[in-house]
Specification:
Order of helices and strands: HHHHHHH
Number of domains: 1
Radius of gyration: 15 Å
Oligomer: single chain
Structural class: mainly alpha
Helix content: 40-55%
Number of strands: 0
CATH class: Mainly Alpha
Length: 141
């Protein structure tokens, strides 16, 4: 796509996300248990496309999935919640609302909002800790 077409698509996409997420009430995202659960979902479902600290996002898709550590700086938690729950048509971003509860999605939001602060070493440690306690993530999709 041309730069103009990309700009138009992104502008319309963000306008739609903002409008659809307006009425969403944001819970507290501070709890470590919520972040830990969100990490487990992210590590099982999202890292393959969006990458993780120390791992680049997938490059073989068009449009390429964004690096969430950059994107979350520009999104409100309610906007990210809406994106995860509903997906974004024509981007490859699937919806998770049919397979995950709102609480689980808020966990993914809580984790994703912390991505800019997480080092590759911290991510590896979180992954190692999650592997010591397997079986908590119960979705195979």
């Amino acid at each position: 796509h041309s730069e103009i077409a990309t700009w138009v698509f992104n502008t319309i996409k963000m306008s739609s996300i903002r409008k659809h997420s307006e009425g969403i009430k944001e819970p507290s995202l501070e709890g470590e248990a919520l972040v830990r659960e969100g990490f487990e979902h992210y590590n099982n479902m999202c890292v393959g496309c969006h990458g993780a600290p120390g791992t680049d996002p997938a490059k073989e898709f068009n449009p390429a999935p964004p690096d969430l550590a950059d994107v979350v700086r520009e999104l409100r938690p309610a906007e990210l919640f809406w994106i995860i729950k509903n997906g974004i048509k024509m981007t490859g971003m699937p919806e998770s609302g049919s397979t995950h509860s709102d609480d689980e999605i808020w966990g993914m939001v809580a984790f994703a909002m912390r991505l800019p602060e997480i080092s590759p070493e911290q991510y590896k440690l979180m992954k190692s800790e999650a592997e010591k306690n397997p079986g908590r993530h119960h979705h195979d999709d």
